[in-house]
Amino acid sequence: MPAPVQDSSPSSGIGHTHSRLISRISAVSFSLWLASGVIQPVQAAIIADKSAPGGQQPTVIGTANGTPQINIQTPSAGGVSRNTYSQFDIDQQGAILNNSRKNTSTQLGGMVSANPWLAKGEAKIILNEVNARDPSKLNGYIEVAG
């Protein structure tokens, strides 16, 4: 008559200890690489292209809650604001294109300050150009204030 037998046997612990050691070494290696700058964390960034003409470089500041506020450049006589970036990555927090001549309320950033580049009027069209090797990462909302 067959007797029930336990299906598992106790482990010697070598495999488990070995995998924990590899994990620990990997975490230490990663930390050292990160600290030395060999690898860099993924960050969303909005950076004006410094090689573009001054009138095409938007100003990026933070709102009171930390959401990026992009003060677009002065629009042309036809109402086109041309803005050139070397990086345009949006994270889950989103970003605000500021097309307002006065302080205004936004859904993403709360109150935003007036855009100083819009003294002669707000843009009818906002043209955003990105000069980058890698594609932009749009992982959040982009709100237009104004």
TrEMBL record:
Residue ranges occupied by any Filamentous haemagglutinin FhaB/tRNA nuclease CdiA-like TPS domain in the UniProt entry: 64-146
Family annotation (Pfam families): TPS
Name recorded for this polypeptide: Filamentous hemagglutinin
Biological source species: Trabulsiella guamensis ATCC 49490
The organism's taxonomic lineage, starting at the top: Bacteria, Pseudomonadati, Pseudomonadota, Gammaproteobacteria, Enterobacterales
